[in-house]
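Long-time lurker, finally posting.

We've been working with DUF222 domain-containing protein (Promicromonospora alba) and I want a structural starting point before designing mutants. I don't trust myself to interpret raw outputs, so I'm hoping someone here can both generate the structure tokens and explain anything notable. Sequence follows.
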Amino acid sequence: MRSNKVLVTRGPADVPGQSPRGAAAPRESGFANGFADLTEAVDAVAAVDALLASLAASRAVLMESVREWVADQPELFDAPEVDAEEPAGLAPELVERLARVLRMPESSAIALIEESRALVHEHPRTLAALRGGHITHAHAQTILGYTDGLGRSNRVALETRLLKHARSTTPGELSLVARIERERRLRPERPTAAPVVRQAAAARRQRLSASPTGRPTR
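Top reply, 14 upvotes:
Generated this for you. Predicted structure of DUF222 domain-containing protein:
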């Protein structure tokens, strides 16, 4: 079987059925003739999908670099307005221009900036898995969403467990696992015994020890 990396990286002139300029040549039975078998065809799609994940990781690193560059040079930008609904420290000009070039609402641009910061500084293992194409961007977003707000030890433990599941589940399936695991970590520990229960047990032991027959006294 030919390597799917070859299928992804080779030039248009090397692709069966295409002219040197990349134009598709006429075929009687379709593009499927360009693959040896279905496994090779599916592997080629998977390779492109892994490349998309890697690009998402690269975008996150670049986005955080841009944010840090802007933050280090406040004299070049207007001072950010303090707003309870926006993360402090983001220059309005940065948010506005990113939203424009990425063709998304400013709220989505802010979310992307914060997601990139979390991946780089708080979730380097998730970032590495995304860069390696082992998980998708949707998996990474699920991990970030369900670990948000947890203490460091719980966050690291949950991230470790979710990364293990992410390699073989859909984002929806991972979300179900994440919800259960997060609730388990947030649930307060059950005390060994409530005060009333402990007092009742102590009183019962006293009655047993005071009875010559070993039976509870009333």
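Before you design anything, note these points.
DSSP finds nine helices and no strands in the chain.
The radius of gyration is 29 Å.
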